[in-house]
């Protein structure tokens, strides 16, 4: 039995789960998320807990058991507390600011880069610490938007300039041999 899959998902206060056929809808203070569950997985609501069961012991069903439970747990966590991904702006002249709901970045290009927040996502910029935060209820979407922003200027290995995740370590290179002397 899957160690992750057999754990029940405890519902926090203010979170409701609606199960219809193979579609799960989770509603909470931070929003509403829905997801279709794979065939062979059954989801039940018992005593304020969500329980995921599998139909058989096939390899595919065993693999999906823990995955389905983890995805549902992320939905419950997202609508109750939300998810955050932080990026750090590193480099001379590189900066980010908010103009309305748009994120505007100067990353060494001849033009500023403007990023619109998709539905369910909000941006925050701390100009003092040069940090961009991506907030939302959907963990996949938060991670994808943060990766799309980072893709505009990934950190380079010589000076470390670019956009990096907070806590990310960049392996630095020495550069030209004559430069070191």
Regarding CATH, which class of the largest domain? Alpha Beta
Summed up, the domain count is: 2
> Could you name the CATH topology of the largest domain?
Outer Surface Protein A, domain 3
Radius of gyration: 21 Å
**Residue share in helix:** 10-25%
- The helix-strand sequence is EEEEEEHEEEEEEHEH
Q: Determine the number of helices (DSSP H or I, runs of at least 4 residues).
A: 3
CATH architecture descriptor text of the largest domain? Alpha-Beta Complex
What is the SS-derived class? Answer: alpha+beta
Silhouette? elongated
Describe this structure in words.
The protein is an alpha+beta fold and 181 residues long. The chain has two domains: 9-80, Ribosomal protein L6 (Outer Surface Protein A, domain 3, Alpha-Beta Complex), CATH 3.90.930.12; 83-165, Alpha-Beta Complex (Outer Surface Protein A, domain 3). The protein is built from three helices and 13 strands. The strands form four sheets. A four-stranded antiparallel beta sheet has the order 11-12-7-13. The N and C termini lie far apart (61 Å).
